[in-house]
Amino acid sequence: MIPRTPPMARCLTAIRKLTIDGVPPSIAELRAELGYASKGTVCTLLQEMKARGLVDFERGRSRTLRIPEALITPSVAQAASDQALAHAAVIIRQEQVERELAGFQ
To answer: pTM (2 decimals)?
Structure first.
């Protein structure tokens, strides 16, 4: 595991929370979520995190912040996969019921 400080852990949590539909948060959104007064503090923190391999981003481009795939916990990926499978099972069952009901008409 890559060593991280408590502020880094809070920042990773904030990035996950604020990433919506694959669009990462802006520096201003992270600053507000973390409660910092300055965007510079967030930038410094993100640079330290990038040096440790905790995040990646393209300097000078907005909304390129991402957490490397290797750091995404398997339980999160598994939960998403389980949810997708459960949703597919509901759809399949609904289609089966509709076919059965159509046979009675």
So the answer is: 0.67
**Is residue 69 within a helix (H) or strand (E), and if so which, with residue range?**
none
Residue in the structure block whose two tokens are 């949590």: 13
Amino acid making up residue 19: T
Residues 63 and 31 in one domain: yes
Domain encompassing residue 95? 73-105
Partners of 56 in the beta sheet? 66
CA R_g for the chain = 20
Does residue 62 sit in the same domain as residue 87? no
The C-alpha atoms of residue 80 and residue 102 are separated, in whole angstroms, by: 33
| Cα separation, 56 vs 34, whole angstroms | 19
Write out pLDDT tens, residues 31-89: 999 999 999 999 999 999 999 999 999 988 999 999 998 777 655 555 666 666 677 77
